[in-house]
Amino acid sequence: MFDENTLQRFLVIMNQHLPVQRRSLAELLLEAEPSYEGKDGHRYRLDRKELEFIASLLEPSERSRFRLPILLMSDTGYETGAWKVEGKLEVKVMSRILGIEPDTEERMRFYYPHLNDLRRRLPTSTTVMFLP
Length: 132
Known about the structure:
The chain is an alpha+beta fold and 132 residues long. Helices cover 35% and strands 22% of the residues.
């Protein structure tokens, strides 16, 4: 049904909302209207209450290394349609929010009900990334 080129074009279209560059939490907290630019050219606003909530889960020294938005990635390498987050600090935050243990210190797999919960709690600070 899909050849490789069609699939790649489809994924590019589905991921146009992704940030050109992820920005540090510390930097965003200093801005009056925190936001990031998407690959589609749109500016996406980040809710200050969400940023402050995430900051409360991190040590002050970690805030300059924590990048936003948090990328919630499809995990097609897993049979049952899982999602994942990667990165030591991202895993730390997601584990605390969801109350589940990560797979490793640098990677955490979760499922659709968790994705729903994350998107409900952090609608502007998270974004979904589709991977092949």
